[in-house]
Amino acid sequence: MTVAVATEFHMVCDLDEVWEGEVAEFEVAGHDVLIVHRAGGEVVALQALCPHQDISLAEGGFENGVLTCRAHLWQFDSATGAGLNPTDCRLARYPLRVVDGKVQISVEGVVPFRVGA
Ligand code: FES
Fold it and tell me: pTM for the whole thing?
């Protein structure tokens, strides 16, 4: 017998609060989450703190789909969270949905990545 377990989604913000081409940081159920509104309309939720030394990626750059940390210029693919420079790190990605213009995410089972952790 299969038992369906409902995933709990948390309200983060109105989609209007993060314009296309912008990012914004939110605290959601104890997680620091970066909402990324990519060119073309895709919305992604990633861990907001750099896996190197916990600097907020909301304070860094966001250009051509690439997130750049302001501290030591590590870069990440905003679509997947994959590390681009260096490539041996990544950002955790959160399940996200947009319902009636509201951005919602789930934090269940998502563990932010931290170098050396
Ligand atoms: S803290 Fe982000 S690159 Fe060092």
Answer: 0.94
Q: How many C-beta atoms lie closer than 10 Å to residue 99's C-beta?
A: 10
The whole domain housing 30 covers 10-105
Residue 19: inside a domain = yes
Question: How many domains does the chain fold into?
Answer: 1
What is the average pLDDT across 60-89? Answer: 98
Pocket test for ligand 1, best of 54, 55, 68 (most atoms within 8 A of CB): 55
CA distances to 16, 50, 82, 93 from 89, in Å: 31, 10, 7, 13
CATH number, domain containing residue 92: 2.102.10.10
Mean pLDDT, residues 104-108:
98
The token duo for 31 is: 């997680």
pLDDT at 87: 97
Give the number of other CB atoms < 10 A from CB of residue 42.
13
Query: Cα(78) to centroid of ligand 1, in Å?
Result: 16
Residue 3 lies in a domain: no
The pLDDT assigned to 39 comes to 97
